Amino acid sequence: MCSNKVCSSLCLCCSCGMSAVAAVTLVRSNVFPIRTRVLLTTRALKDKPRPFHCGPAPRLSNSRFDPDGSGKPTTWDAFGIWDDRIDEPILLPPSIKYGTPIPKVNLARVGGASLQGRRKENEDRLQASQITDAILYFAVFDGHGGPQAADFCHKYMETYIKDLVAKEEDLKLVLSKAFLEIDKALARQLDYSADASPPSAGSTATVALLRDGIELVVGSVGDSRALLCRKGKAVKLTVDHTPERKDERERIKSSGGYVAWNSLGQPHVNARLAMTRSIGDFDLKGAGVIAEPDTNRISRNRCDRDENNMLHHAHDAFLALTTDGINFIMNSQEICDVISQCHDPKEAAQRITEQALQYGSEDNTTALVVPFGAWGKHKSPHLTSTFSRSFASTGRWA
Description:
The protein has 398 residues and is an alpha+beta fold. The chain contains 10 helices and 14 strands.
């Protein structure tokens, strides 16, 4: 036995046949003094790990993105952050560019659902697609006065955005231009079409662009919404354009329009439209109803210091786009909680649309659910329904 206490400790570990893991456990349990713990840890880490399977040892690689030399990309789960039920590869170039592992958002896993409800027809539309190698496109449109405006947006919005991103780097500017251009294009179609839609036809539009799996930009007009679920909490990315907002109400009045309240206490532009911005509604353009969207960017780069302006896959579970058939009956946190209980985004989209109808919504209900890195990580408690839900469809929830 060596006279030195540190050496004695090391010898003791070796003579007992102690494994590297056991040695590290003793080190962390403060059984040995600090110097002894340092030496034990060093020695333990140098020991080769014992494999849990038989056969030849895997060939190792110097690349952190291909550690076992298999030629397959490292999955996000290998970094110990993504939920262990999900096995998605990381995006290598963006991960290098932004200095953080970024998982691939697979369009096949995006959930979407739309139910007619008690309406005569479904005027809602939804869409998810890849417009460039780096940019994914997600959108919901809620038509009114007929489905014509929503159909037009569903058919052409992606094309306008795709043309613009080829010339413009700023995605907020891309969305602003696309909304205004598609509004003008719809007006031209109504002017020249023999089977023209009524001038009262219009649509909300909520569009999200995801670049490199980490830069999220949202643009919207009307009262369809986008929210981000972060650590189980709802983060609103859009604000409804309604006459209830003082700034929008004043803008309508200064443009020559007026706001009137119906018997339920709901304000409408010129006693007709429940929103102050939309695609279409050309009979109310002179009253201040515009197609210029509000835009919001959630990105992560070295210049960002505010965490609320960053997309964090370790904390952000999903993006949800919803129409007013859901929003008028469920608040943002309730939407976040219901989706968080679901096993996958497809189930979540179906459940949230059905839940709104069960709560008393009489409108079309549409939801698009895009999973991020923390999907399934933050579970919400079981939700309970109340009798007051049957009366809630006449109100507007935060």
